[in-house]
User: What shape does this take?
Amino acid sequence: MIRINHNYLKLRASYLFADIARRLEAYQVQHPGKEIIRMGIGDVTRALPAACIDALHGAVDEMARDSTFRGYGPEQGYRFLREKIAQHDFKDRGAQVEADEIFVSDSAKCDTGNIQEIFATDIRVAVPDPVYPVYVDTNVMAGRTGVFQDARYQNLVYLECNAENHFVPQLPAEPVNLIYLCFPNNPTGATITKEQLRLWVDYARHHKALILYDAAYEAFIRDDRLPRSIYEVEGARDVAIEFRSFSKTAGFTGMRCAFTVVPASCKAYTAEGKPVAIRDLWNRRHTTKFNGVSYPVQRAAEAVYTAEGMAQVKALTDYYLHNAAFIRQAFTDLGYACVGGENSPYIWVNTRSDSWAFFDRLLEKAGVVCTPGAGFGKCGQGYIRLSAFNNFENVQKAMDRIRSALI
Ligand code: MLT
Assistant: This one.
């Protein structure tokens, strides 16, 4: 008899964004022809930077000639890309990260989901609430949680993020071994200061814990005082893994390219307390289960680090930030308290009502799709998340319709 992993039965029926897509499809069947503006899932809408397109064309031409054709590449990513990442994203900002500590992959979603595989099942895991659902669901699948009850999984430590703590979690009251942090935050758009991050690094060092730091949205930081990488904090190299992505930075959601930094000195421990280099374990996993990102896509990602590429990425992220400011202002003018949208493409709106009811209201009255905050956790109840990834004309139209719907 073939038996299933019973932990899958603990999961809620579907992944949040799949659930929203299903509801939207059902709505559209009933209202054919109604124009819907999607501000739910954070999917980019603007064309790739020209520097990336040129690099892609060049790489495709190389693949067309026997003399320059490439087959399997290194699973960890080509050196040309890893070196550029180490230099521009880290060393230039005073963070010590070497090329051989970088693992190129197809997505931060996959990496943040897969990394937990290399840790014991009986560790104590802390996640923020509200939270990007991937962190939670992958730990459920791995059997680290109990059942889902009262909007939470048993055995997980939830770090509450709310208006009182400015959506930055406080250190847990009980010891935890694995901590997920995400800044600029998905879904709230909140940011963390270097001093606040230092508290977490010190905590992890003291408890021999590990921080999984998701920095997929760092390209949206405009406030120079904010850290872009956890490695800007002294001592973080021993206790933190960082995840980055080209998806939101350079419009790669359809291209697929991201990377994970696992510093050589970052350790986890055997049951006897013997330290083991996490980089070796992640390398083992990566080389066994992953065959690398395609050569043309890695060349396109490399182009992000040219002078033109950097300017084009800046223009792209500025564009979305302009949308974000517009959305935030529109909701503020309507009397709703908002977070995010300043160093982040997400705006977190306090609806003072049920999240899903507000979702339905926006869909039915304004033809706008948002993400209900409750889908990100118990503390998300009452909020919605709006994504600024759209064309400005659509954002303007959406805000006009929302104004008419809500006034
Ligand atoms: C989101 O909307 O939260 C993101 O697009 C999801 C993701 O990057 O996987």
Q: What stands out?
A: The chain has two domains: 6-47+309-406, 53-307.
